[in-house]
Design goal:
The complex is a heterodimer of chains A (266) and B (259). With 266 residues, chain A is an alpha/beta fold. Chain A has two domains: 5-65, no CATH class; 77-264, P-loop containing nucleotide triphosphate hydrolases (Rossmann fold), CATH 3.40.50.300. Helix content of chain A is 39%, strand content 24%. In chain A, the strands form two sheets. In chain A, strands 5-6-7-3-8-9 form a six-stranded mixed sheet, with helices on both faces. In chain A, strands 2-1-4 form a three-stranded antiparallel sheet, with helices on one face. Chain B is an all-alpha fold. Chain B has one domain (4-258). Chain B contains 13 helices and no strands. Classes of the chains: A alpha/beta (266), B mainly alpha (259). At the A-B interface, helix 5 of A face helix 2, helix 5 and helix 13 of B.
Chain lengths: 266, 259
């Protein structure tokens, strides 16, 4: 079978403003002037949030941070790719760019196919709505059609083990039940490409295993999966290849075993 | 400019968002949907006593309760939609920074979700009219058009405020104030006939003015159907909506980064 890239990231960079505040006034006179000019400074600060000067982008500035810097890679159809890297390496930013939540500052990402991105459990849940209503709402938010949700409804409820509580507002759920329901919806998405961020950090061991099995079965169906985890054994177990990010830059890509080996020996 | 094809792909999501907004509004209340009419009903009573009976403001010869309620109907929808729409992006911050979908759906949801409440208020108005033996004129046929104008102008203003609020948190603070001013710029507690004739077309630049005057003319037969005022209001509301859409489109790509 010809390798067919479904994700193509080309020199993707993302710049954020940190928001460093200026020196505090020391004298009375300075304090008064500072107080009077506050609205003007606030306005300028807010206006600059989305504007970067050419100089800042080229030579950097103390008020900006590159969350991703010139990251290029391809993912082929059916690949299961693991992403490793410490906190702040740019993993979530990368997911946000791939899922179109935010635009790259420079570079581009091409996506071919329906993509769902799980950055967090329970996105789209509303506390006042019942389990049933939330399954429909968050399913729709994550990109399922009403018909798909209907077909999978019983499976989702069974997976989350909340059969008795489908008509209870989720604000009365225990935190475990809430998380299980949130993941159950996410685990029954059927996109061509699935991005999963650190899902195994929560839930009890049994439920974690269940989620992992579900991901493996999605992978066997030929779906493209990108998976962020701090658990290297899990990455080695379910991913063919891996990608290592450090301070926004790509350090290494290749077979999962090799990347993880280098990452662990860093 | 606006990716209509993409929007149609997301119409199911819009449906679910609207359904959520409607369902959630009166959850865990005792009176439920009755809240729709309680507020305008009490305002109507207060206006009748203080502005009508005591201050003796004119009402185009219509009994005060009917005169006020016919305006409260449109005004409540307008003010409620703008408040909810203007705050909608901030309330849905998490959704915006976690998932992709056309951001337009969020501030447009309140425009649609307010319509059931509007319909209930409308029934109440019909009830009050019957009580006073006032019957609608044939111009009631134009009511759907007036409601459309109301929806478009509320959506336009809501889009503007929502888009601005992402960067400037001053907006949620100013919305109640803006609405207070706006109410006095609209013929809610007084008839438009109080406005001098030479200023009346300028006055009609406020889309709510055309809608409320149209409502009163069509339902209560206070004045001949005010075509010129409604025409100006219609143009104003379309301009408001289009410029709201353009502004929203320009800034939405930053929403997830700065909200």
């Amino acid at each position: 079978m010809m390798a067919n890239p479904v994700i193509k990231a080309h020199e993707v960079s993302k710049c954020y403003r940190i928001g460093i505040t200026n020196n505090r006034p020391t004298t009375l006179r300075e304090t008064i002037m500072h107080g009077i000019s506050t609205p003007v400074r606030n306005l300028n600060r807010l206006r600059r949030l989305t504007k970067f000067t050419g100089e800042e982008l080229l030579s950097g500035g103390e008020d900006i941070i590159w969350s991703l810097r010139n990251v290029s890679f391809e993912v082929n159809e059916g690949d299961v790719l693991g992403i490793v890297g410490s906190n702040g390496a740019g993993k979530s930013t990368l997911f946000k760019i791939l899922s179109r939540v935010t635009e790259p500052t420079s570079g581009y990402a091409e996506i071919n196919g329906r993509l769902s991105c799980l950055l967090e459990a329970g996105v789209g849940f509303h506390p006042e709505l019942t389990g049933r209503e939330n399954i429909y709402l968050s399913g729709a938010v994550l990109g399922m059609t009403k018909q798909e949700i209907k077909t999978k409804f019983d499976e989702i409820v069974g997976f989350a083990e909340i059969e008795k509580f489908v008509n209870t507002p989720v604000k009365r759920f225990s935190s475990g039940m809430y998380i299980r329901l949130a993941f159950a919806v996410a685990m029954h998405l059927e996109p061509d490409i699935l991005l999963i961020d650190e899902i195994l950090a929560v839930g009890d061991t049994a439920f974690q295993k269940k989620c992992l099995r579900q991901i493996e079965s999605l992978a066997r169906e030929g779906r493209t999966i990108i998976f962020v985890s701090h658990n290297n054994d899990v990455i080695k177990k379910i991913c063919k290849s891996a990608l290592w990010l450090k301070n926004g830059r790509l350090v290494k890509t290749g077979a999962a075993d090799e990347v993880i080996k280098d990452y662990e020996n860093m | 400019m606006i990716d209509l094809k993409e929007l149609t792909n997301y119409k199911q999501l819009l449906y679910f968002l609207v359904a959520k907004e409607i369902k959630v509004r009166y959850r865990q209340t005792v009176l439920g949907g009755l809240w729709v009419v309680i507020q305008p009903f009490f305002l109507m009573a207060v206006f009748t006593v203080f502005l009508g009976n005591l201050a003796k403001l004119p009402s185009d010869g219509i009994p005060y309760p009917v005169f006020y309620f016919s305006a409260m109907l449109a005004w409540q929808y307008f003010a409620g939609t703008i408040t909810r729409s203007g705050n909608s992006l901030i309330i849905n911050m998490k959704l915006i920074s976690r998932v992709y979908f056309p951001r337009l759906l969020i501030p447009l949801t309140p425009s649609l979700a307010g319509l059931p409440d509007f319909s209930i208020s409308f029934m109440v108005l019909i009830g009050i009219m019957l009580y006073y033996h006032i019957y609608p004129t044939v111009m009631i046929l134009f009511l759907p058009f007036l409601v459309l104008l109301l929806v478009l102008s509320a959506s336009g203003a809501g889009l503007f405020l929502a888009a601005l609020s992402v960067k400037y948190r001053d907006i949620p603070m100013t919305i109640p104030f803006i609405l207070q001013m706006w109410m006095f710029a609209s013929p809610v507690v007084y008839p438009a006939s109080m406005v001098p004739v030479k200023y009346r077309l300028v006055y009609a630049l406020n889309p709510v003015a055309g809608v409320i005057e149209g409502f009163r003319a069509a339902l209560l037969g206070t004045i001949p159907f005010p075509w010129h005022i409604i025409l100006v209001s219609a143009i104003a509301s379309i301009i408001l909506l289009i410029s709201g859409l353009i502004y929203f489109q320009q800034v939405e790509r930053f929403f997830a980064d700065i909200i």
